[in-house]
Amino acid sequence: MQATEDMNEFFKAVHTSLRFQFHDKLEEYYVTIVDSDTEEIVKEIPPKKMLDMYASIAERLGFIVDEKI
How many CA atoms lie within 13 A of 40 on its CB side? Predict the structure, then answer.
């Protein structure tokens, strides 16, 4: 896919990379932008802390159920 290749080339030039992470509780992906030299996470989209908080609230309200009845 040309758009993906173009994005990869852009991120190489600025020494960063995109990584798609899977949030286990929400079963959704989020993106991390990582500094290629230091492996430090520069940004998360959406922020993982926000996803964790949403998952915690949803679990308490019963939106996320681990067992089948």
Answer: 4
Helix (H, G, I), strand (E, B) or coil at 45: strand
59 CB contacts (<8 Å, ≥6 apart)?
25
pTM score, whole prediction: 0.68
Give mean pLDDT, residues 12-25: 87
- Work out the number of other CB atoms within 10 angstroms of the CB of residue 34: 19
Residue showing tokens 């852009």: 10
Helices (H), the chain: 2-13, 48-61
Q: Is 19 helix (H, G, I), strand (E, B) or coil?
A: strand
Other CB atoms within 10 Å distance of the CB of residue 25: 14
